[in-house]
Amino acid sequence: MVSLYTFIMDYLGGTYVSQVRAHNENEAMILWAKKLETDEIKGLTLDDKTIIIKNGFDDDEAVLLTGLENVWCFDIRTKGGFALINFIKTQQ
Q: What is the span of the domain harbouring residue 71?
């Protein structure tokens, strides 16, 4: 079943929110990365996005936040800095 996931990314002092529909959290992370709009995210380059997509999330599994349901966290490092991403399964 496809669910709606809401992503909240903190990166270089900005907060960016987007949504994707996916079958599970791993697929949601990949679709989210592909959907990143580099022209709307301060400091995120097309090269950064390409590397994020190419590397995938095999080594960076999302962590289910303790005491919460359907809320995960993961991070990304780019040449420009560090991004903290929280995401929520907001609809089934």
A: 3-91
| Residue 59 burial (10 A CB sphere; 0-12, 13-18, 19+) | exposed
> What pLDDT digit, counting tens, does each position of 7-41 carry?
999 999 999 999 999 999 999 999 999 999 988 99
User: What is the token pair recorded at 72?
Assistant: 């995960």
Give the count of domains, the chain.
Answer: 1
pLDDT above 70 covers what percent of the chain? 95
Alpha-carbon dihedral angle through residues 21, 22, 26, 30, given to the nearest 10 degrees: -60
DSSP string, 50-63: HHHHHHTTSSSPPE
How many Å apart are CA 18 and CA 7, to the nearest integer?
Answer: 5
The tally of CA atoms less than 13 A away on the side-chain side of residue 47 is 4
Query: What is this structure's pTM?
Result: 0.89
